[in-house]
Specification:
Blueprint (H helix, E strand, L loop, with lengths): L2 H13 L2 E5 L9 H12 L6 E4 L4 H11 L6 E4 L2 E4 L1 H10 L1 H6 L2
Parallel strand pairs: 1-2
Antiparallel strand pairs: 1-3, 3-4
Amino acid sequence: MTEDMKTKIKNLVEKNKILIFMKGTIETPQCGFSARAVQNLQKAGAEKIESVNILADRDMYSAIREYTDWPTFPQVFINGKFVGGCDIVTEMLQNGELKKELGK
């Protein structure tokens, strides 16, 4: 991963309260796991979710996996912190942690 790409990811993560690197977009997810992660964030009260379509940017696809050392998508960041993927977000919704993380 180039330094420029690392800086780009860091800036995206820091400037967005909720950011999801996903296959597709929030409006048109291209993967069931990405769709479910967005739905779970919304169920927990997330109002503004920013997304990056990793299918539209192959460099970003590779770089974000290296950045987080996480092999799958989606990848969710809340308040600048990497939270995890769909299964973790689902678990956090079920046990109430997701609402706390979102400040709800």
